[in-house]
Design goal:
Elements: H1 2-67, H2 72-119, H3 123-130, E1 131-136, E2 140-142, E3 145-147, E4 150-154, E5 158-159, H4 165-190
Antiparallel strand pairs: 1-4, 2-3, 4-5
């Protein structure tokens, strides 16, 4: 029982040590996802708008052909061109919808994960709410010291590898720069 408690303390300390790295990674991920999501939504709106526009053009083209303003050969050439473009835009729109749905699902999972992290106040909650499984690998010797790898799988995000201290510092500095850039942009937009 003492060993189990010690193992839990080690796991909790390990997990708490990664919270900062996870938060920084989540902030970066959320920013990138938001940017990509906005771009994809704009592409989808543009594609849907062009699909409707092509329908109108095709109707006008047909009317011009029926009224004799447009030759049959020209009508056939233009209608094939419009139909090909419309098929391409429909495929693009379908692909973008699928991507947006997948991104929405990932974002929802990330938000659930963040919500769990914010609710955690006790060690027991950390283990039960935050961690889905723990894999303890066989011990090995390196430099006359005993080493043992432990993989912790977090609910909603899977395994998170702990960055080296230098990497953590770089992530922290990048996080600070991003915050400063946001503040600068916000200040510039207000003026």
């Amino acid at each position: 029982d003492l060993f189990a408690r010690h193992e839990n303390v080690v796991i909790v300390a390990h997990s708490m040590g990664t919270l900062f790295a996870i938060q920084a990674a989540m902030d970066n991920s959320v920013q990138k996802q938001s940017s990509e999501l906005a771009k994809s939504r704009k592409k989808l709106r543009d594609a849907e708008k062009r699909i409707v526009e092509l329908d109108r053009l095709f109707i006008r083209l047909y009317e011009d052909n029926v009224s004799g303003k447009l030759s049959d050969e020209r009508f056939e050439l233009m209608s094939k061109t419009y139909e090909a473009e419309q098929a391409e835009k429909k495929l693009l729109a379908q692909t973008l919808r699928i991507e947006l749905d997948e991104t929405k699902q990932k974002t929802d999972e990330l938000e659930k994960f963040i919500s769990k992290v914010k609710k955690i106040t006790e060690v027991k909650e950390l283990i039960h709410e935050f961690i889905s499984k723990i894999v303890v690998h066989a011990p090995y010797r390196k430099d006359k010291r005993r080493h043992q790898a432990i993989d912790i799988y977090y609910s909603g995000v899977g395994i998170v590898y702990i960055p080296e201290p230098e990497e953590s510092e770089m992530m922290f500095q990048e996080h600070l720069r991003n915050l400063e850039e946001k503040q600068n942009l916000s200040f510039l937009q207000q003026t």
